[in-house]
Design goal:
The chain is mainly beta and about 210 residues long. It is about 10% helix and about 45% strand. A hairpin with a 5-residue loop joins strand 1 and strand 2.
Amino acid sequence: MEFKVALFVLALAGVLLVSGCTSPSATPTATPQASIEATPTATPIANASTPTPAPSETATPVPSATPTPAAAPAYTNGSPVAVSDIKINWDTTTYDGMAHQTATMAVDNVNKDNLTIGVVVLYKVSTPMTIINPDGSTQNLTNTITKRQDLGTMQWNDHEDLTFDVSHNKNVPVTITIEVQWRGGQAVVFEKTLTMADHNFGTFEF
C-alpha cells in the first residue's frame, strides 16, 4: 500500500515537472525595425564649363602710308654723268628790258666702271631774233648764250650742285639745252623749249 502511494506521488511530481518545463508555444512577434527612408542625395554633376567668350579682335589701325616723293628724273642720254632736279627761275620784269634766268641742277657721276675725266657741263639758252639787212630784207636767226662749268674728274657717285645765271632777250620761245662733255664724248642730256611771256616770272621744274 505504501509502495503504491509512493509511485503515485512520483508520477504526480513528474507530471508537474514536465508541465513546468513545457510552456505554451508563443507566437513570435516580429519586432518592427526602424524604417530607413532613403533621402535622395543629389549627386553633383560637374557643370559643363561655361564657354569663355573669345576675345573680340581689336582692329589694329594700319598707319597710312606716307607717300614717298618721286625721285627727280635723271637725264643721261648715254652720258656717264647724269643731270637731275633741274629748276629754272626766270624773271622778265627787270628794268633793263632783259629776261633773267637762274638755273640749278644736280650732277652725278653714274659711271660705275671708270673715272670720268674732263667733265664739262654747258647750259645754253637760245632765243629767236630777226635782223634787218641794209637792203631792208630781214633775216631770222637764233641767238644762243652758253654758260660753262668745268668739273674735272668725277669718280663713281661724285655729286655736284650747279647754278647758272643767264640774261637774254625777251623773245620767245626760249630753248634750254644742257650738254655734258667728257674725255672721249659728249651728249645733250636735256633740252626743252619754253614759252616765257613778256613781263612775267615763275619757275619751271624738271
